[in-house]
Amino acid sequence: MADKPSIHGLVADFDSPDKLMDAVKAARKAGYTKMEAYTPFPIHGIDDAMGAKPSILGYLVLGGSATGLTIAVLLQWWTGAVDYPLVIAGKPYFALEPSIPIIFELTVLLSAFVAVFGMIGLNGLPNLYHPIFNYSGHKGITDDRFVLVIEASDREFDATATRDFLTAQGADKLELIEA
Amino acid sequence: MAELTHAQEMKERLTPSLTTGHPTYHDVTEAVSIIAEVKTHRNWYIALAISTSITGILGLMLAYLVATGVGVWGNNSPVGWGWDITNFVFWIGIGHAGTLISAILFLFRQKWRTSINRFAEAMTLFAVACAGIYPAVHVGRPWRAYWLFPIPNEFLNMWQNFRSPLLWDVFAVSTYATVSALFWYVGLIPDLATFRDRAKTKGKQIAYGIASLGWRGSATHWKNYEKSYMILAGLSTPLVLSVHTIVSFDFAVSILPGWHTTIFPPYFVAGAIFSGFAMVVTLMVIARWIYKVEHLVTMTHLENMNKVILATGTIVGYAYATEFFTAWYSGNPYESYVFFVSRATGPYAWAYWSMISCNVISPQFFWFKKLRTSLPFMFVISIVVNIGMWFERFVIIATSLHRDYLPASWGYFRPSFVDILTFFGTFGLFITLFVFFTRFLPIIAISEVKGMMAQTHHEEHFLDEAVAASEGKQPVGVAH
Fold first, then answer.
1. At B50, is the pLDDT very low, low, confident or very high (cuts 50, 70, 90)?
2. Residues B449, B436, B136, CA angle at the centre, nearest 5°?
3. Most buried by CB count within 10 Å: which residue of A93, B21, B96, B457?
4. Which residues of chain B lie closer than 8 angstroms to A88, CB-CB?
């Protein structure tokens, strides 16, 4: 399809999360693999229905936590006991007990940074352009429309057959969108 | 017929709906978006003019303070901490309710939090902004305030004392401010996308477009988003408990009678939640009236918050009693003196008994359903509670400091006009930030309310089936 304006996929627009969910399940059953749902709020179970893998964000955050913890221990130990040891009220230069508050805070801080910027990164944001914005009704996605896109790169994709299939699922509106 | 009663009871419990009427998803979008889309009302400019003028007073007072020195405050020897730390603890405490609503109630799956969490989180951020001013300026030379952080520099040829609770506080408050801002922003992204898609003018399209980062609501987006939100809630929960715990360490780790007590961390946390919920009630009563969102922020929400105020107010009252008991039971004359003389009968008795009336007695009215569902009554009580919580911090600080061990070093704290006007000015800042927030951002979490509606719809459907099944005397099977 190199010559023609390339097609991103076929949009099917539904008016309820249940219809979208049924359509996703039916599409999986019909052998479609490259699809994406667009919704105004998260629909529980739709990832499983689409066959998507669980988010890896949790593991990334664990890395952030470990980094924060390590920095906090090294910072307090090195500044207090190595670089500039100073006797204050007869306390030890470094001990675990008084170090815990800052260990906790830095662990939380670094974890939160990874949780937020990791999510943004995994979602490929910021990215102000995406083919879905070519769909004439895309503004409904952040309001009350539930949209399924079967992508043109899917092996099963066929402009006519896919259209018929999605019509049968009860879509209110169908539209081919450009990439 | 255990199934029948259980299913019916569950349905009963869902019936006091968290949105009144049966709004559609689009109705929710409209109700929240319209607030920021209508032509700016004249009253908004009036509110802005008043609040920025008050913020201006804050600016003038801070400029005077920095130019002259902390001597312009009423702080003296022995009362080295006065309104500066009182107001810092007051504001940071108010912030706690926002995080509690957004994080802890989220983890406990309290659906009623959904309509009020955005507003409460905004309150957290703005309160922390007001709180943050005080530690920065009370160091005396605020242009060296960065010395609080371990930043290598050419002036301070040493490191911070990481064994001091005051430094823990620096880390706790700055982490809290940062994480609260991040959490708030993550929650805002999908709603900013809604605003982007509804924007009529080029300027708004660009501004909301950039702010929403190109959010498109795909299942992949939501998958990572929900994970992120869950993790942030999980992180914020111990964080919010740690912040006031560490603030209380500023006092508890010292060896001053009246401060040196292990009850402080839970007592401070309960007090923070108490004052914060009171502030949310104050603001929510005003906001739902101005912005006509009574169907989204219902009486159920307000009543639940009043119940939290009652519970935490009672905990605070219990903590006050425990302090007296410990002072008496310890047999320590200095400890007893602080409570039985300095607080209850000494020169600060007026402040102490104001605190008791506001914090211990006033929330007890919420035992009565009629009172905790009365808008004017809860509005008054919520303000009284915050006055009481301000007095609590003042009492803890001033009464413990004003009579040192030797009578030769006794004193009395009187606020100067700079103290008073600075505190007054922080309310201006707080309100100014709110005035901007309610004009330009979604004040209710649109996508979360919709998600909650969809979930409730499913549960009701399930329960209807369960009721029908048990009435038809068919086995219901497992509950889920």
1. very high
2. 110
3. B96
4. 161, 163-164
Contacts of B215 in chain A (CB under 8 A): 125, 142
The answer to whether the CB atoms of A43 and B218 lie below 8 A apart is no
A111–chain B Cβ distance below 8 A for any pair = yes
In degrees, rounded to 5, the angle at the alpha carbon of residue B377 between the alpha carbons of residues B372 and B378 is 55
| Average confidence score pLDDT of chain B | 87
- List the beta bridge partners of residue A37: A148
The Cα of B151 is separated from the nearest Cα of chain A by a number of Å equal to 11
Hey, is the C-beta of A57 within 8 angstroms of any chain B C-beta?
A: yes
Q: Which of B106, B158, B162, B166 to mutate to test the interface with A (most CBs of A within 10 A)?
A: B162
Tell which of A57, A119, A136 to mutate to test the B interface (max B CBs under 10 Å). A119
Range with the largest mean pLDDT of B10-19, B107-116, B392-401: B392-401
Q: Is A139 on the interface with B (CB under 8 A)?
A: yes
Instruction: Count how many Cα atoms sit within 13 Å of the Cα of residue B169 in the half-sphere of its side chain.
Output: 20
Quote the tokens at residue B270: 């309960």
Provide DSSP, B184-215: HHHHHHHHHHHHHHH--SHHHHHHHHHHTTT-
* Side chain identity, residue B138: H
- Residue A128's pLDDT is what? 84
What is the value of pTM for the model shown? 0.88
Predicted confidence (pLDDT) per residue in B367-408, tens digit: 999 999 999 999 999 999 999 999 999 999 999 999 988 889
Distance of alpha carbon B384 from alpha carbon B16, whole angstroms: 29
Decide the pairing of beta strands A35-38 and A7-14.
unpaired
The amino acid present at B91, given as its one-letter code, is W
**Per-residue pLDDT reduced to its tens digit, B180-234:** 999 999 999 999 999 998 888 898 889 999 999 989 888 899 999 999 999 999 9
Interface test with A, best of B222, B230, B248, B455 (most A CBs within 10 A): B222
pLDDT computed for residue B16 by the predictor: 42
Residue owning tokens 């715990």:
B245
At A60-113, the pLDDT tens digits run 999 999 999 999 999 999 999 999 998 988 889 999 999 999 999 999 999 999
CB of A86 within 8 Å of a chain B CB? The answer is: yes
Instruction: For residue A80, list chain B residues with Cβ-Cβ distance below 8 A.
Output: 159, 162-163
Residue pair B246/B165 in contact by the 8 Å Cβ criterion: yes
The HSE-up count of residue B197 (CA atoms within 13 Å, CB side) is 26
Residue A13 phi, psi (nearest 5): -110, 125
Residues in B closer than 8 angstroms to A86, CB to CB, are: 158, 161
Residue with tokens 């006509």: B292
The closest alpha carbon to A156, from A10, A19, A13, A40, belongs to A10
User: Count of CB atoms within 10 A of residue B345's CB?
Assistant: 12
Which run of H or E residues covers position A35?
strand A35-38
Three-state SS for B116-142 is CHHHHHHHHHHHHHHHHHHHHHHCCCH
CB pairs under 8 A between A and B: 185
Interchain pair B218, A86: CB under 8 A:
no
Q: Report ipTM for this prediction.
A: 0.92
